[in-house]
Specification:
about 260 residues; mainly beta; four-stranded mixed beta sheet; 26 strands
């Protein structure tokens, strides 16, 4: 009888591909394991380039899919995690500490808090420059500008009633400090501008008998004004300061009673 010849070929084992991963702070696998081969250097935590070594377990009965049986070296990587650079905010003064650039878990930050109106620059530093980069791929410190704008001026005024003795006014003009005629309910900054609008008794104008100092608001009641109650209207404007804008002119009316 004749015996038939036959061949049992080794089974081909497919070589895996090396992964391209991104750092996440925990161990990752860059080349998968298999029952057909032993593997080393296929796990890591930090960003970097790695080479896994694969060795067939049974070189008599297995080959790689390219027909070879020699150990294989498979490159794989963990790329640094990208960190977005935050934008600087534009805030408005409110008398409290403000944060102009947000904090993050992957960077430290200085210069991101302030109270007064102004322009500021925060400095951001990556905590782990091996495993993280900024979104543009760099690791150098970042400068982020931010601002606190001046707030609208809170100036609020209310007129008072003041008495002037006719006996004194017959002899000479009388002066009234601004705080005697105007109550400042709210103000920002001491510098103000004053303008006299009108001074009436009934429907008749007596503006010529009154004068107001543009800078101090001191009111002068001129000699010769007769007895009566006069409604004096002035315009007040706060010049503002480092934290507040200048206000618009506000009208306020106070009464002068000559008795």
């Amino acid at each position: 009888s004749t015996q038939a010849a036959y061949t049992i070929r080794p089974a081909a084992v497919e070589m895996p591909q090396g992964a391209s991963l991104t750092y996440k702070g925990a161990e990752q696998t860059g080349v998968p394991a298999s029952q057909d081969y032993d593997i080393s250097a296929n796990t890591a935590t930090d960003a970097g380039s790695y080479t896994a070594i694969l060795s067939l377990k049974d070189k008599e009965n297995n080959t790689w899919n390219d027909g070879s049986t020699a150990d294989k070296r498979i490159a794989w990587t963990i790329d640094p995690a990208k960190v977005k650079v935050p934008s600087g905010k534009t805030l408005t003064y409110n008398g409290k500490a403000r944060t102009g650039v947000v904090t993050g878990v992957r960077y430290t930050i200085i210069g991101n808090k302030a109270t007064k109106a102004g322009s500021y620059t925060a400095t951001l530093t990556l905590k782990d420059k091996k495993n993280t980069t900024w979104s543009d791929g760099t690791v150098a410190n970042k400068k982020v500008n931010w601002t606190i704008k001046k707030a609208a001026n809170p100036l609020r005024v209310k007129g008072k009633t003041v008495k002037v003795k006719y006996s004194k006014l017959k002899k000479k003009a009388q002066t009234l400090t601004v705080t005697r005629v105007i109550k400042f309910k709210k103000k920002a900054g001491d510098k103000k501008i004053y303008k006299l609008s009108s001074a009436n008794k009934g429907t008749k104008s007596f503006k010529k008998y009154f004068k107001i100092n543009k800078k101090t608001g001191k009111v002068t009641v001129k000699k010769g004004l007769k007895k009566g109650t006069y409604r004096v209207t002035v315009k007040v404007k706060a010049a503002g300061n480092a934290n507040y804008k200048a206000s618009l002119y506000k009208k306020v009316t106070f009464k002068v009673r000559v008795r």
